[in-house]
Amino acid sequence: MATIKDVAKLAGVSVATVSRVINNTSRVTPETREAVTKAQDELNYHPAVSQKFSSRQDSEIVGMTIADHSDPYFGQMVKVVDQSATKEGMSLIVNAGYHDAGRERQCIEELIQKRCRIIIAHTVLLRDELLTRYMANQKSMILINRKLPGFEDRCVYLDDEGGAYLAVKHLIQNGHSKIAYIRSSHQIADAEMRFRGYVRALEEAGIMFNPALVVSADPTPQGGEQGAEALLNLSQQFTAIACYNDMQAAGAMAILSDNDIRIPEHVSIIGFDNTAISRYLHPRLTTIMNPVSAMAMSAFAIGLAIIREQDTKVQSRVFTPTLIKRFSVRDLRAF
Amino acid sequence: MATIKDVAKLAGVSVATVSRVINNTSRVTPETREAVTKAQDELNYHPAVSQKFSSRQDSEIVGMTIADHSDPYFGQMVKVVDQSATKEGMSLIVNAGYHDAGRERQCIEELIQKRCRIIIAHTVLLRDELLTRYMANQKSMILINRKLPGFEDRCVYLDDEGGAYLAVKHLIQNGHSKIAYIRSSHQIADAEMRFRGYVRALEEAGIMFNPALVVSADPTPQGGEQGAEALLNLSQQFTAIACYNDMQAAGAMAILSDNDIRIPEHVSIIGFDNTAISRYLHPRLTTIMNPVSAMAMSAFAIGLAIIREQDTKVQSRVFTPTLIKRFSVRDLRAF
DNA sequence: GTGAAAGCGCTAACAA
DNA sequence: TTGTTAGCGCTTTCAC
User: Would you say the pTM of this structure is higher than 0.90?
Assistant: First the structure.
């Protein structure tokens, strides 16, 4: 691989001059520029970015940690941050932890070692203590989907409890009272919060919480299938199922349909997240809007404000989920 | 941010020693190691990776370009490469071009500038000429989903034409002859190849190709909706629709269903790619398996073999799609 | 086992 | 406008 020296030699100029034409950081005669450019592509020269910033302080790269590249939920987040970063002339690196605490930590460590200017971390398995240390040292590190005591101004998250509450309340308002819940088997905060929202909605309506109506499964379509099967095997009565997320809802719907249980005629179902898929299920799935893109944008904006030393108060931190009515919930009161 | 110097000073040793304990590249007394480690986390020191490799030749990073982070199709690819890379102790950087030729080029350029050891490029808009130049200079650059003349040994791709042929042939074998096709509006090779497969299957069966039965749309659910609407408005007769991909099929199914057209009773439908979503549509979608993961693994393996100077002949390059029968195609001959 | 010092490829200050 | 040179933070010889 050719270096700046090679280019300089071939063009008959100094490395400084080459550097100048590359970054056009100062005036250069058309002839020298020409000579340099020519040498440059004759040698197929590509400046090594890592060196570019080694002499200076900064790096112009934003780092991000997510759980899983193949999960469209994160895909959406990454896309938004990527495009925002590009707009600011920064590049993006994203590391995935795949639901493993050790890897999650390594992801963050790697971003620090790569000297990212901004770090947006979706980390769910790291202990508060460790995370606190990272946050304290990385001034432009933002947490997404997590509320860390002492760093509220750098946390962006959804009101998960409120979202689930909204979902279940919607079912109740439609006359449902025997409401099953498929929760996420992952030991993470939002799983717990959503579950609490379910319980609160029930309590508020004076409906007895029945533990037998709650099953735990992976937050995936497969999980939804298993959850629905478990629910059917219980032979408990229920007229509706609330799910941890749309993926589970998709799986559950498939199983119900396989068993000739019609949605929403026989059983109503409600999801969470408003994943792209939810609009294309049959029937189109009623769900809770999770403004992932807006949250990701906000996280990036906060990070940017920090490194630009601008006011950071403008950005939203906690996001409110909203109900998206489609066709998977039946109004029992009408009959 | 603390540097290796700071650590050395605090630990009362030389930078060389610090470097040694960090990489444990040579024996060090337990006491010095202890002192260094202590200084290290007292200062919250994280070695700057970019510098680590600046003195040497290599970088231990693999780069990848894709079209869109939010597309699960690419998410799957990225995940596989990520995990393979991690297994080899390498890290991954991925850049997305978002269906823009300029950005696509920039993505590759960036990976080169970051000195990736292996580059896996999914690039569809770059001209052969330009790509040839990159391939010639980057010996461990692999193309995915593209066949570039002269570099066949570094191209991994699917037989798209064969896949679409398979899909349409399946419809024909089930007694269909009025078969509509929703093609991708993107000007890319695989869109063209899949379309050709459709035409060839028709021709081979002696069915007249009817241009009026072909509509063009985005390779997304929205595109599928538009495509299906267009098809319905044409008021042409058809008993089946073959789609460019599963996303389009999902959108098309929703529209048909909205119009009380039953699948597969009234209209059969077949997708392409076997995206996760396809199993959860109603009815479960018959589609063509696109072994993205296997292809991505193979691409990485080829890259790895190249930098390891190992035999590269072992890996598969062209992948064969297979039919996945589910419930969206009706057998007309049975009636 | 450890340190001094050269070198990696680049930028930026300072001279010319 | 251009060249010289110090320096960025790290690794790696080569002595000791």
Answer: yes
